């Protein structure tokens, strides 16, 4: 079930369709980042891989930084197969089932976790439109609690308690801000 029609698709046409899709996706990403030419993108190392192990990084994204490891090809293959089986189930009936919506893009009950749940949205809207301090407190409490769960990367961090550094030993703000770059144009938009 769900197999490609061998007469219609050859290995070459599958690879060509894949490359076309990836190229369109890359162009969209580059345009949104202000990258005007492929030359300014190649080798720029403007991304960091999150959630991929060294096997995938070395094979597909050579030289890309990845401080947070993650899944490998085995998990990618299992997830692809799982999604394929959901989209093309073996069935006795000819009626298509309703595909599940896991809530990846929009909030769904029992779906992917999102910061902007209906409750959070209602509380922040009530606080903003009516000045309801209790609604804001509920919103702030929920958002602060989210940082301790897996919805955000920062929620997975654990900090070690240390003695504080004397203020005299901290680099002054006047020195720190000298390293800030505040150009009016993005580097991507002026690259050639």
Q: What can you tell me about this protein's structure?
A:
The structure is a single chain. The chain has two domains: 11-87, no CATH class; 118-180, no CATH class. It is extended, with a radius of gyration of 24 Å. The model has no long low-confidence stretch (mean pLDDT 83). The protein contains eight helices and two strands; from the N terminus they run ααβαβααααα. It is mainly α and 192 residues long. Strands 1-2 form a two-stranded parallel sheet.
Question: Tags for this entry?
Answer:
two-stranded parallel sheet; 192 residues; Glutamate_Synthase; 43% helix; mainly alpha; extended; Aldolase_TIM; Glutamate synthase subunit alpha
Segments where pLDDT lies below 50 for 5+ residues? none
The residue fraction in helices comes out at 40-55%
- Tally of separate domains: 2
SS summary, helix count: 8
- What structural class do you assign from the helix and strand content? mainly alpha
Per DSSP E runs of 2 or more residues, the count of β-strands stands at 2
Taken in chain order, the helices and strands follow as HHEHEHHHHH
**Strand coverage percent:** 5-15%
Strand order of the largest sheet: 1-2
Name the shape in a single word: extended
- Report the span from N to C terminus: 49 Å
Domain Glutamate synthase: 117-191
Domain Glutamate synthase central-N: 10-53
GO molecular function: glutamate synthase activity
Protein name: Glutamate synthase subunit alpha
């Amino acid at each position: 079930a769900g197999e490609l029609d061998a007469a219609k698709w050859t290995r070459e046409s599958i690879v060509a369709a894949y490359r076309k899709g990836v190229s369109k996706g890359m162009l969209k990403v580059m345009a949104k980042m202000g990258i005007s030419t492929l030359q300014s993108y190649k080798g720029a190392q403007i991304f960091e891989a999150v959630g991929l192990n060294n096997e995938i990084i070395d094979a597909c994204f050579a030289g890309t930084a990845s401080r947070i490891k993650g899944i490998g090809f085995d998990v990618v293959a299992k997830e692809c197969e799982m999604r394929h089986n959901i989209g093309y189930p073996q069935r006795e009936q000819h009626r298509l089932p309703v595909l599940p919506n896991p809530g990846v893009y929009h909030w769904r009950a029992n779906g992917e976790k999102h910061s902007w749940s209906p409750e959070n949205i209602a509380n922040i809207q009530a606080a903003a439109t009516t000045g309801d301090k209790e609604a804001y407190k509920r919103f702030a409490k929920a958002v602060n609690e989210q940082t301790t769960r897996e919805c955000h990367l920062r929620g997975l961090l654990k900090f070690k308690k240390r003695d504080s550094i004397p203020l005299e030993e901290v680099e002054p703000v006047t020195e720190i801000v000298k390293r800030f770059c505040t150009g009016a144009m993005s580097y991507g938009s002026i690259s050639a």
